[in-house]
């Protein structure tokens, strides 16, 4: 397995950073950066929901993905579905029936692992909003190149030569798979190898979450 050339270890990902409460109007917000990739997420709610979208037994979760430039298309709709399905899984939506949790994700810079960074930004924003969650979620990306070379946290440039790119979202409680997205194709054995790399990368993200929360709570 090969790590990103920016790193010096096969179990490291590009440098991670975050900024919480970066916008005043939403109930929660966060910027998540990984290498040169940067995503901002804002969370509103639980709040009022339109009657035609209200669910009697749980909150309605909506996700709007905004590209860096241009208008949303098929790519953005696919990202919205993945982010929404992931967030719905970890949110305690049954505590807030007939309400809405709205998540806005803004792409700032895409230098690789955009979907993973978007999920991580949304998770930090939900934590910042104080919405009850079953657990947190971390997402990561791994690619398989030529000769079955595995690259953890590949850059956008590296994925141009990928045979397969896997993005996986893992929960913090059971460390089980919540959602995954794959571009390209691979064998079952290769998939398990990719998943193993993604899980190692997600562990690094969970570690970052803990450190970020400790820094936030320690502020006067």
User: Which radius of gyration do the C-alpha atoms yield?
Assistant: 17 Å
Q: Output the CATH topology.
A: Ribosomal Protein S5, domain 2
Count of strand segments:
9
Any low-confidence stretches, pLDDT <50, length ≥5? 5-10
Give the termini separation. Answer: 43 Å
Structural class: alpha+beta
> Which H/E pattern describes the elements?
EEEEHEHEEEEH
Beta fraction of the residues? 25-35%
Q: What portion of residues is helical?
A: 25-40%
Major sheet characteristics: 5 strands, mixed
Q: Give the number of helices.
A: 3
How many domain units? Answer: 1
Q: CATH homologous superfamily?
A: GHMP Kinase, N-terminal domain
Top-tier CATH class: Alpha Beta
InterPro entries: ExoRNase_PH_dom1, ExoRNase_PH_dom2_sf, PNPase/RNase_PH_dom_sf, Ribosomal_Su5_D2-typ_SF, RNase_PH
GO molecular function: DNA binding; RNA binding
Keywords: Cytoplasm, DNA-binding, Exosome, Nucleus, Phosphoprotein, rRNA processing
Organism: Strongylocentrotus purpuratus (Purple sea urchin)
């Amino acid at each position: 397995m090969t790590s990103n050339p920016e790193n010096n270890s096969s179990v490291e990902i590009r440098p991670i950073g975050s900024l919480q409460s970066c916008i005043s109007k939403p109930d929660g917000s966060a910027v998540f950066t990984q290498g040169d990739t940067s995503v901002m997420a804002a969370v509103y709610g639980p709040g009022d929901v339109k009657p035609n979208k209200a669910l009697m037994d749980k909150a309605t979760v909506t996700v709007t993905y905004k590209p860096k430039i241009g208008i949303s298309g098929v790519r953005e709709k696919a990202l919205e579905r993945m982010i929404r399905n992931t967030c719905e899984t970890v949110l305690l939506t049954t505590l807030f029936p007939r309400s809405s949790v709205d998540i806005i994700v803004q792409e700032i810079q895409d230098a690789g692992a955009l979907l993973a960074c978007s999920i991580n930004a949304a998770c930090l924003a939900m934590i910042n909003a104080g919405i009850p969650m079953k657990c947190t979620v971390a997402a990561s990306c791994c690619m398989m190149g030529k000769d079955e070379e595995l690259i953890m946290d590949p850059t956008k440039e590296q994925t141009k030569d990928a045979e397969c790119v896997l993005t996986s979202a893992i929960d913090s409680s059971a460390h089980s798979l919540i959602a995954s997205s794959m571009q390209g194709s691979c064998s079952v054995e290769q998939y398990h190898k990719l998943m193993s790399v993604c899980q190692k990368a997600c562990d690094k993200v969970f570690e970052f979450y803990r450190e970020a929360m400790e820094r936030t709570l320690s502020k006067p």
